[in-house]
């Protein structure tokens, strides 16, 4: 009836040459279509709801997230009906590039790719699901995290394939660099990835130096093994050289060759080289971290070269601190380098004139295995390296094998799977430092912290998770963040404010950011001797605005400082300070500790509210910071 009355009024207004306002006309038309109320004005920032959309809002999605699903067809597979790793690398690079360009708003190129470990093969008819999103943007580069899984459409089974991190660089006109806008993480997972991305970036920058240091300090350990040479295959017989012409389908809209396409070509020649050693069909298990040295364009001739650098014995290689496998069959982590071979592969670009010096595009190291019917690595023939350069590659391959084991074990394992005290040496020092800082940053980014106690300016929070009970104690102090960072990162002064510390001896200064201390603490009530710790202290200054100063602690073992009878050897898994500047003169100082059973005896009464020991210790920390701040000011005035 209301609709009929509106129609009659509208008709009279039109006959009387009366101008009908647009709002009334729209309202009448909507009423004729069944609407009984005028359209609601949208709030600022509110999106227009699509027709047929659900009333309940969906959770916010990361604007840089890209999802790709690809059905594996016969044209994507090898002779075994398994997805070619080269094809998978092309899909990974494409998805990651699209994610990077979503954030940058301009073309992006692949700068580097971290280690990739392939856990399973993918068969024809299955679906590859790839999810990529930007974890953090730096000045002109950004880290993109990629997760790859497969889906069996018949059984509904889902399985993880690999996780990768790629670095992309944004490019403006004529290849100029573009300054990227910062990324604001929203979820707990995104905040963790954002925080640790800075530490992964640091690890990439020192990757080459890590190999050099290991070769320098262990030159005697990496000498050629004594072999009779009867079954050794000359490395020269595995050499492969192939050329590819870069055509428009291989390049992006700027004419630069896709990084994934180059990786696919490199994987192809590396597979041929590996096959020439084992006379079988190898399976790619890992790709070493690599960097693209320069771009190639449509029309370039890419010359790809590959050779087997080393083949490793088919035995289980134990990782220090890792439990023995329950059966003779090696575990997934240890079989990576059990009966495996490393293939070195390079890509160089030429123009039309082959006489011109080539441009080095990329070098990579790929690890292959040959699997038997039960999926276990087979024994491989030995490699006889060429004198000179071949022997150098042979030794470097052995060093990279050790680094890969350490990196996969220390970096990739879950926190609960890493022993409390991992042996420290030259090969894993970078990755122990990474694990130390990233573990603390992950703890900082956790949600669901509960306020347990508040005493004046000191607040104590707890977090119960799995078998860990974590603590956070924080307060605001009138001191600059940089000065607090300098004072709290020096464990030799810890006894000045923490009564539980008796002494801290600097055992080894690894570099400017990492120190190893031997710490002696007070006796516990139920013990008749003091505790001692061997602690790696890793310090980091902010990577960008908004980041805290970080001082992270974790236990390590050193041959020079074994457990002794006069002490009870203690261990700490994750603890440390985070310091945020609140103003020019104020800082928020927070201490975190992921408590282990030995530490719980000390803090139990504090959690119950029966003692103020922890709060008193932190108040003493504030007095220590203020006292030394004043001492610094007076020294500057005297100067």
TrEMBL record:
GO cellular component: cytosol
MF (Gene Ontology): carboxylic ester hydrolase activity; lipid binding; long-chain fatty acyl-CoA hydrolase activity
Domain START: 449-608
Species: Oreocharis arfaki (tit berrypecker)
GO biological process: acyl-CoA metabolic process; fatty acid metabolic process
Gene: Acot11
InterPro entries for the chain: Cytosol_ACT (IPR040170), HOTDOG_ACOT (IPR033120), HotDog_dom_sf (IPR029069), START-like_dom_sf (IPR023393), START_lipid-bd_dom (IPR002913), Thioestr_dom (IPR006683)
Region (Disordered): 35-57
Keywords from the named record: Fatty acid metabolism, Hydrolase, Lipid metabolism, Repeat, Serine esterase
Record's protein name: ACO11 thioesterase
Pfam family, one: START
Catalysed reaction, written as an equation: butanoyl-CoA + H2O = butanoate + CoA + H(+)
Biased composition (Basic and acidic residues): 40-50
């Amino acid at each position: 009836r209301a609709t009929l009355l509106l129609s009659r009024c509208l008709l009279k207004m039109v006959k009387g040459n009366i101008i009908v306002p647009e709002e009334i006309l729209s309202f009448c038309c909507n009423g004729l279509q069944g609407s009984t109320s005028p359209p609601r004005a949208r709030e600022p920032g509110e999106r227009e709801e699509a027709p047929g959309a659900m009333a309940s809002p969906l959770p916010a999605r990361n604007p840089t997230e890209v999802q790709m699903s690809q059905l594996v067809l016969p044209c994507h597979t090898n002779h075994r009906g398994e997805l070619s790793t080269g094809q998978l690398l092309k899909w990974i690079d494409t998805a990651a590039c699209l994610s990077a360009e979503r954030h940058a708003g301009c073309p992006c190129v692949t700068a580097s790719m971290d280690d990739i470990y392939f856990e399973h093969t993918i068969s024809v008819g299955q679906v590859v699901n790839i999810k990529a999103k930007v974890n953090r943007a730096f000045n002109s580069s950004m880290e993109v995290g990629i997760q790859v899984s497969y889906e069996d459409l018949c059984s509904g089974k889902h399985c993880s394939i690999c996780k990768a991190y790629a670095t992309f660089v944004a490019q403006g006109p004529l290849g100029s660099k573009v300054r990227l806008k910062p990324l604001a993480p929203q979820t707990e997972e995104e905040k963790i990835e954002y925080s640790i991305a800075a530490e992964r970036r640091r690890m990439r920058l020192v990757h080459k130096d890590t190999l050099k240091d290991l070769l320098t300090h262990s030159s005697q350990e990496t000498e050629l093994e004594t072999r009779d040479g009867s079954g050794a295959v000359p490395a020269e017989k595995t050499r492969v050289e192939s050329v590819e012409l870069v055509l428009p389908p291989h390049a992006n809209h700027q004419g630069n060759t896709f990084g994934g396409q180059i990786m696919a070509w490199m994987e192809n020649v590396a597979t041929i080289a590996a096959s020439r050693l084992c006379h079988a069909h190898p399976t790619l298990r890992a790709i070493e971290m690599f960097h693209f040295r320069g771009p190639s364009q449509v029309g370039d001739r890419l010359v790809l070269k590959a050779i087997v650098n080393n083949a490793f014995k088919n035995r289980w290689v134990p990782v220090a601190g890792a439990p023995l496998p329950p059966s003779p069959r090696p575990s997934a982590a240890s079989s990576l380098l059990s009966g495996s071979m490393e293939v070195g592969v390079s890509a160089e670009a030429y123009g039309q004139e082959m006489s011109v010096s080539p441009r080095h595009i990329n070098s990579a190291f790929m690890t292959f295995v040959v699997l038997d019917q039960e999926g276990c690595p087979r024994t491989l023939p030995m490699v006889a390296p060429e004198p000179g350069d071949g022997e150098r590659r042979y030794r470097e391959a052995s060093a990279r094998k050790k680094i890969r084991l350490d990196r996969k074990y220390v970096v990739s394992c879950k926190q609960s799977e890493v022993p409390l005290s991992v042996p420290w040496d030259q090969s894993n020092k970078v990755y122990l430092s990474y694990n130390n800082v990233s573990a603390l940053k992950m703890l900082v980014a956790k949600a669901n912290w509960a306020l347990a106690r508040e005493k004046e300016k000191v607040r104590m929070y707890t977090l119960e998770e799995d078998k860990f009970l974590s603590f956070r104690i924080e307060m605001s102090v009138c001191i600059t963040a940089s000065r607090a960072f300098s004072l709290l990162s020096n464990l030799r002064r810890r006894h000045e404010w923490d009564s539980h510390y008796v002494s801290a001896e600097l055992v080894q200064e690894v570099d400017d950011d990492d120190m190893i201390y031997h710490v002696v603490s007070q006796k516990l009530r139920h013990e008749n001797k003091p505790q001692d710790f061997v602690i790696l202290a890793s310090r980091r200054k902010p990577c960008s605005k908004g980041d805290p100063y970080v001082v992270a602690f974790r236990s390590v073992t050193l041959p020079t400082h074994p457990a002794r009878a006069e002490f009870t050897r203690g261990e700490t898994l994750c603890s440390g300070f985070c310091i945020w500047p609140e103003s020019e003169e104020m800082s928020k100082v927070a201490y975190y500790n992921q408590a282990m059973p030995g530490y719980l005896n000390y803090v139990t009464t504090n959690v119950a509210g029966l003692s103020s020991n922890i709060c008193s210790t932190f108040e003493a920390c504030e007095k220590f910071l203020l006292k030394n701040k004043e001492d610094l000011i007076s020294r500057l005035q005297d100067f």
